[in-house]
Design a protein that fits this description.
The complex is a heterodimer of chains A (256) and B (187). By secondary structure, chain A is an all-alpha fold. Among the domains of chain A are: 2-32, no CATH class; 115-230. Helix content of chain A is 77%, strand content 0%. Chain A contains eight helices and no strands. The longest helix of chain A is centred in the N-terminal third of the chain and has 72 residues, at 35-106. Chain B has helices at residues 3-14, 18-40, 43-60, 71-89, 95-99, 109-112, 116-127, 131-142, 147-154, 158-176. Chain B has 187 residues and is an all-alpha fold. Classes of the chains: A mainly alpha (256), B mainly alpha (187). At the A-B interface, helix 1, helix 2 and helix 3 of A face helix 1, helix 2, helix 3, helix 4 and helix 7 of B.
Chain lengths: 256, 187
C-alpha cells in the first residue's frame, strides 16, 4: 500500500481493457469515499488518536506513580520485615546454636573435650537458695560418680579420672556452699558415705589405669566425711565390704 | 509512501503522534473504504466502518509489531474482520450485489456522466460471484492488495487466490458481455 503499490492498484488490470475500465468506473462512482467523507473520517480518526495518546500518557503517568508508591511502600514494609526477619533469624540461629551446643555439652562424656564445659554449665546454674543449692551439689556428686562408672564400664581410664576430678572439686564446692549449716553438712556426709561404697565397688572392677583416680576419690571423700564429722581423717585406703562390718568403716564414715 | 517512511510513521504513531497517524490514514483510507464499501453497500455504513477500522487500529497500535506482518496487511485484516462482524450483526447488509441500487446522484459531477445502467450492470455481475470470489475481487482490485497479501488475509494459499481471481474475472466478463476470447493475465 505504499506509493508504488498504490500505482499498482491503479494499474492492476484484469487483462481486459474494457472490463478494467468498467470496474474502475464502478470503483470511482460507488466505492470511493467523497472528499467530504474523507475529511470527516480523518478529523475523527486523528482526534481519536490524539485522545488515545493523551489517555495512554495519563495512564502511563498514573501507573508510574502507582508503581513508585508501591515500591516505596514495599521498601518500607520489606525494610521493616527485613529488619525483624533478620533479628528474628539471628535470634533463632543463636538460640539454635545455644540449644544445640547445650545439648551437645550436656551429653558430653568425661572423655569428651566438652566435658569441662559441661561441668562448668552444670555448676553455673545451681540454685541460689542455700538448701536447694546444697541438694543440687549432692545430685551433682552422684552424677559425677555415675560418669565415672560409665567411663569405667567403657574401659576409659581417662574418663574415670576426669569424672572423679570433677567429683573431688564438687565436694569442695559443696562443703563451701553448705556454709557450716549442720543439716546441709549432714546430708552431704550421708551422700559421701554412699559414694565411698560405690567407688570402692568401682575400684574393684575398673581398669588398672583408672585405679589411682578412683583411689584418690575415695580418699578425698573419706577425708571430707571425717572433716564434716570432726573425726580423725581416714588413713586406710578404701577396701573391704560396704556393709559396715570391720573397723575400717566404723565411726560413721560411710554415713549410714 | 515507501516502507521506511511508513515504518517511521507507525513508530511515531505508537509513541502518540496523532498527526503521524493522520498521514497513515491518508495513505490507506481510500483502499480500506473501497474494500469495505464493496461489502456493505451504503456509503454511510462504509464511512462509519472505515472510521471504525482506523479507530481499532489506534487501539491495537501499541501491540502492533512490524515483524513479518506488513502494516497494510495488518490494517486490511482489521478491515475484513470489522466488515465480517458488521455483516453478521446487520442482516440487511447489501454487499456488492446490492450496491447496484445505490444512486449515483451522491457522487461528484464526473460520476454522473457515467451511465447508471452500466454501473448497475457491474454491480449485478459482482453480485453473481461466489462469496470467496467477491472477497478476492474486493481485496485485489478494490483494496489494491497483492495475491500474496490477499492470501494471508483470507487464510488461503496464494495459488487458491489466483484461481479464485481467474474464475471471478471470467464470470464478470461473461456477465458483462465483455470479449470472452481474451485470456486473463492479472495477478
Amino acid at each position: 500500500m505504499n506509493e508504488e503499490r498504490h500505482a499498482d492498484f491503479e494499474l492492476i488490470g484484469t487483462g481486459d481493457d474494457e472490463l478494467d475500465w468498467r470496474l474502475h468506473a464502478y470503483i470511482a462512482a460507488r466505492l470511493s469515499p467523497t472528499e467530504d467523507a474523507s475529511r470527516r473520517m480523518r478529523r475523527a480518526v486523528v482526534a481519536r488518536a490524539a485522545d488515545a495518546a493523551a489517555i495512554r500518557a495519563f495512564e502511563a503517568e498514573r501507573l508510574a506513580l502507582q508503581e513508585g508508591r508501591r515500591l516505596q511502600a514495599q521498601r518500607g514494609l520489606s525494610g521493616f520485615l527485613r529488619l525483624y526477619t533478620r533479628r528474628g533469624a539471628a535470634a533463632f540461629l543463636a538460640g539454635s546454636m545455644i540449644f544445640g551446643s547445650s545439648v551437645a555439652v550436656l551429653a558430653a562424656t568425661p572423655s569428651s573435650p566438652l566435658y569441662g564445659a559441661r561441668i562448668w554449665l552444670e555448676t553455673s546454674f545451681l540454685p541460689t537458695q542455700a538448701d536447694a543449692r546444697a541438694a543440687a551439689h549432692v545430685t551433682l556428686l552422684e552424677v559425677r560418680v555415675e560418669d565415672a562408672e560409665h567411663a569405667a564400664g567403657g574401659g576409659d581410664p581417662s574418663g574415670v579420672a576426669a569424672a572423679l576430678a570433677a567429683y573431688r572439686a564438687e565436694i569442695d564446692a559443696a562443703i563451701r556452699d553448705a556454709d557450716g549449716d549442720p543439716a546441709r553438712l549432714a546430708a552431704l556426709r550421708d551422700a559421701l558415705g554412699v559414694h565411698v561404697l560405690l567407688l570402692e565397688q568401682l575400684e574393684a572392677s575398673a581398669p588398672a589405669a583408672a585405679q589411682n583416680a578412683i583411689h584418690a576419690a575415695i580418699n578425698d571423700s573419706r577425708k571430707a566425711t571425717n572433716g564434716l564429722d570432726g573425726s580423725k581423717p581416714a588413713v586406710t585406703p578404701a577396701a573391704g565390704p560396704p556393709d559396715g562390718e570391720g573397723g575400717q568403716n566404723a565411726g560413721g564414715q560411710q554415713g549410714r | 509512501m515507501d516502507g521506511e517512511t511508513l515504518d517511521r510513521l507507525v513508530t511515531q504513531a505508537q509513541e502518540g503522534d496523532s498527526e503521524a497517524f493522520g498521514l497513515i490514514f491518508d495513505e490507506f483510507h481510500g483502499a480500506i473504504f473501497r474494500f469495505v464499501a464493496s461489502r456493505v453497500g451504503r456509503p454511510s455504513d462504509a464511512e462509519d466502518l472505515t472510521q471504525l477500522v482506523f479507530v481499532k487500529a489506534i487501539e491495537a497500535l501499541p501491540r502492533y509489531e512490524a515483524r513479518g506482518v506488513p502494516f497494510g496487511g495488518w490494517l486490511f485484516r482489521l478491515a475484513r474482520n470489522t466488515t465480517i462482524d458488521y455483516i453478521r450483526t446487520h442482516r440487511e447488509h447489501t454487499d456488492l450485489a446490492d450496491v447496484a441500487g445505490r444512486a449515483t446522484e451522491d457522487r461528484g459531477p464526473e460520476s454522473i456522466t457515467i451511465l447508471r445502467t452500466d454501473l448497475d450492470a457491474v454491480a449485478g455481475a459482482l453480485g453473481r460471484l461466489t462469496p470467496d470470489q467477491r472477497e478476492v475481487i474486493g481485496l485485489r482490485f478494490f483494496g489494491g492488495l497483492s495475491p500474496k497479501e490477499a492470501a494471508e488475509i483470507m487464510g488461503r494459499h496464494e495459488g487458491t487466490i489466483r484461481g479464485l481471481q481467474f474464475r471471478a474475472i471470467e464470470s464478470l466478463r461473461r456477465s458483462l458481455g465483455v470479449n470472452t476470447e481474451d485470456k486473463t493475465e492479472a495477478g
